[in-house]
Design goal:
Largest sheet: none
Order of helices and strands: HHHHHHHHHHHHHHHHH
Number of helices: 17
CATH architecture: Up-down Bundle
Structural class: mainly alpha
Radius of gyration: 23 Å
Length: 470
């Protein structure tokens, strides 16, 4: 019979195992809370800015795009420095926590103030006010985004476990998607004396409850973990004390790692190309399908976004299973084939009066957005040498591409609206061909970007094959 000491050791070992599993689960939920804050930080500015500053205060769409895209590009330019600094930081709070705290506080405060602009100010003053707050907001964004991704990469060296963590984060973000497009309809409730007052209150609540609260929970409770194990037998081992890549060298990773180049190009196609043409669906819903009724158009936009969220949430386990069974790259191939089909369907879905057939758009195209959040980050982390704990450079590069993509999509959107001759003051009586041109861009742009994405994935498969047989 086993003696008492052996039994006690076994019992202690089991208790430690259970405690570690419980702590690991808690860490995953804390990271998911951080991604919820990041999601609302990324999405809510664009959601509220167009109906508030452009459709209501009548600011020029191109100038408004510049007021968002310019600060976004400036903010993304510091992501490499944030990545290196968070890799090297040795404060008593840890490497990542000081940046997370600064990022969350900066984001929430600037977001709350962004919607407090006086309605009776001249347009240029309103634009200047928004531009200043937008600059502060997007300078704070990489302070949250880069350390957050680094924390996930450090949780485990296993690609499938990373996919599971990003899958949970994606699921939480999809739950957030159920609410963020309803911010505009909430601002239009009779509870508020005007739409402007509604936006002020909704902006304050969003900045406090949906950005600050989950972000601070992550910053104060998240645990930093470093792994120096070999996570990919195809990579050459690197020492655990490897020096972090300097900020100016983050972009040089694209020259050093061909696979990373193609993955970033894939991000650019979806997050810039598809995102740019997707901004036009709001205008079609309001001006083409609801005769310039902002309330009705916003309701249908919120319904469509909720459909995207639910469909994207349903795709999380499907993508997880497919990635484990066939690999992430093969999964991305069928995802973009589905996206291509959805792009073609948009031409017919966005004609006439709005119907619930619009939800077919969400069913066909939501998988691509879920895949960007769930499958791409683990593929990027796998390009890092085994044993490395300096994930700040890859995280910074990913954030830079995401931010540049978002900025370019905003600029292209404003430029397209001006080029097509769109005039918010004309209501439903737009010039001949304007709304049809928007529909063509929405549908054809999605198809074209999906075709290019499939071509990129063919190159990624080729590189992986050559790497495996080298």
């Amino acid at each position: 019979m086993p003696n008492r000491a052996t039994t006690n050791r076994a019992s202690t070992s089991q208790a430690n195992t259970n405690r570690a599993a419980s702590n690991h689960k808690v860490q995953r939920y804390l990271l998911a809370a951080g991604f919820l804050a990041l999601f609302f930080a990324n999405q809510s500015v664009l959601v509220l800015a167009v109906p508030f500053y452009q459709m209501t205060l009548a600011l020029d769409p191109l100038l408004l795009s510049l007021a968002i895209a310019g600060p976004m590009l400036l903010g993304s330019s510091i992501s490499g420095y944030v990545g290196r600094a968070s890799d090297c930081c040795q404060s008593r709070l840890g490497r990542r926590r000081p940046f997370l705290l600064a990022g969350v506080l900066g984001l929430s405060l600037s977001f709350v103030l962004m919607w407090q602009v006086p309605a009776d100010w001249p347009p240029l003053w309103q634009l200047g006010y928004f531009s200043l707050l937008s600059l502060l907001f997007f300078l704070a964004l990489p302070l949250l985004a880069v350390p957050l991704s680094s924390l996930v990469f450090e949780q485990t060296p296993d690609p499938q476990q990373r996919t599971a963590v990003f899958g949970l984060a994606s699921a939480v973000q999809k739950l957030g998607s159920l609410g963020y497009q309803w911010l505009v309809p909430l601002s239009q409730l009779a509870l508020f004396s005007s739409f402007q007052q509604g936006v002020r209150w909704v902006g304050a609540l969003t900045g406090t409850l949906l950005i600050a609260l989950p972000g601070l929970l992550l910053a104060f409770r998240a645990r930093e973990t470093n792994h120096a194990t070999n996570h990919d037998s195809n990579h050459k081992a690197a020492p655990a004390t490897q020096a972090p890549v300097a900020a100016r060298d983050s972009l040089s990773l694209l020259c050093q790692r061909p696979l990373l180049r193609w993955l970033m190009l894939l991000c650019l196609l979806q997050l810039c190309g598809c995102a740019f043409v997707a901004t036009l669906d709001y205008y079609l819903l309001v001006y083409a399908m609801n005769q310039a009724d902002l309330v009705a158009g916003s309701w249908w936009k919120a319904l469509l976004s909720s459909g995207y969220a639910l469909a994207g949430l349903a795709f999380v386990p499907v993508l997880g299973w497919s990635s484990a069974r066939f690999g992430a790259v093969h999964t991305l191939c069928w995802v973009f084939m589905l996206n291509l089909l959805g792009g073609a369907a948009k031409w017919w879905l966005y004609q006439g009066d709005p119907t619930y057939w619009l939800l077919l758009d969400a069913i066909l195209c939501s998988a691509a957005w879920t895949a960007m959040a769930m499958l791409i980050p683990p593929l990027l982390a796998a390009t890092e040498p085994a044993g490395s704990t300096a994930f700040g450079a890859v995280s910074a590069l990913h954030h830079w591409v995401v931010s540049v993509s978002a900025a370019l999509s905003m600029l292209l959107s404003g430029l397209a609206l001006n080029t097509l001759g769109f005039a918010a003051g004309a209501g439903a009586a737009q010039a001949d061909g304007v709304l049809d041109a928007m529909r063509l861009l929405l549908s054809g742009g999605t198809v074209l970007c999906s075709l290019f994405a499939l071509l990129v994935l063919w190159h990624v498969q080729r590189l992986q094959f050559l790497e495996e047989h080298r």
